[in-house]
Design brief:
With 319 residues, this protein is α/β, with parallel strands linked by helices. The chain is built from 14 helices and nine strands. Helix 3 links the parallel strand 3 and strand 4. Bound molecules: phosphoenolpyruvate and magnesium ion. Phosphoenolpyruvate binds next to strand 3 and helix 9. The site of phosphoenolpyruvate has 10 residues, from strand 3 and helix 9.
């Protein structure tokens, strides 16, 4: 089965009723990019740039970052790469960035909040991203955004970093949707974004108040909880016909979540490189009209377990 999936991996993922879903890869290194291409990824939907910043005594300069982004872009051979700006915080400290000690780092200075406090660092990263975008199809994505004002500020820094040439024409600018307030206020974000990518790992954590990775609350932590799905639905409805919606959290490679996400209107799934062939195969088995009906029903359910049962029933032909 894996061999058949791999043979088809380079082909687009098109559902039984003809809907195409982009299946991209999440990357944290140039080696991941090689794995993504071998697995047939349509692009890189999330490049976690943290790998360039961790385990060192000073921040990488513009030149060094640009070289790494170019190495990834060259490996992706013309496919679009989505570079996420630095997403660190109290849970992932950096020795050269003074960070407050926080009792609740997941509710503290993370992602864009920290980047806006250290604008020189953000400006350097934006400069490296702009240079890359003048040479390769590139998107930039901002993590942990909770209010449109943060996107306005991030865009200001991007514009400063772009210099006299202005923003690269082919650069797409997007925000991650990881905080419930951002999902609920999606309309207010639309003037400032070309796309959004839903980070279901953090969105699930913040919606259910269940810390990701905390073993005591794993039963609660499920992106198929209808509360999370209602937020995703809200985003997809506002975005329809205006901007693209991707999902780049773990849910994107969960075979029971994929029919629901596609049914809600998600048209890009970004997953770990090794999952790409399996996710493409799962999309090819779907009837999107049926998924849409399934998703409507999922939104009305009480819990993630009910949703999983519903999807299982459909996939096994009983639904
Ligand atoms: C997410 O939160 O779903 C996400 C993709 O970002 P990360 O896992 O890097 O926090
Ligand atoms: Mg996240």
């Amino acid at each position: 089965q894996r061999a058949r999936q791999l043979a088809l991996a380079g082909e687009p993922a098109t559902s039984l009723d003809g809907t195409s879903v982009v299946v991209a890869a999440n990357l944290g290194s140039v080696a991941d990019a090689r794995a993504a291409v071998a697995a047939g990824a349509d692009g890189a939907g999330l490049v976690r740039t943290e790998f360039l910043f961790l385990d060192r005594s000073s921040a990488p300069g513009v030149e060094e970052q640009h070289d790494e982004y170019v190495a990834i872009a060259e490996t992706m051979a013309g496919r679009r790469i989505t570079l996420r700006t630095l997403d660190v915080g109290g849970d992932k400290p950096l020795s050269y960035l003074p960070m407050p000690r926080e009792a609740n780092p997941f509710l503290g200075q993370r992602g864009i909040r920290l980047s806006l406090e250290h604008r020189d660092l953000l400006r350097d990263q934006m400069a490296a991203i702009c240079r890359t975008a003048r040479e390769f199809p590139t998107s930039v994505m901002i993590p942990m955004v909770s209010t449109p004002g943060e996107m306005v500020e991030a865009r200001q820094v991007l514009l400063e970093a772009a210099g006299p040439a202005g923003l690269p024409e082919a650069l797409h600018i997007g925000t991650m949707i990881e905080v419930p307030s951002a999902a609920l206020k999606i309309e207010a974000f639309l003037p400032y974004v070309d796309f959004v990518s839903i980070g279901t790992n953090d969105l699930t954590q913040y919606t259910l108040a269940a810390e990701r990775g905390n073993g005591a609350v794993t039963a609660l932590f499920d992106a198929l909880d209808p509360g999370v799905l209602q937020l995703i639905d809200h985003v997809c409805r506002a975005a329809r016909g205006r901007i693209d919606v991707a999902v780049c959290g773990e849910a994107a490679s969960d075979e029971l979540a994929i029919p629901v996400l596609v049914g809600l209107g998600v048209r890009e799934l970004s997953v770990s490189p090794s999952a790409v062939p399996r996710v493409k195969a799962a999309v090819r088995e779907l009837d999107v009209a049926r998924c849409a009906a399934l998703a409507r029903e999922a939104l009305t359910m009480a819990g993630a377990d009910d949703v999983r049962k519903l999807v299982l029933a459909m996939l096994s032909g009983a639904g």
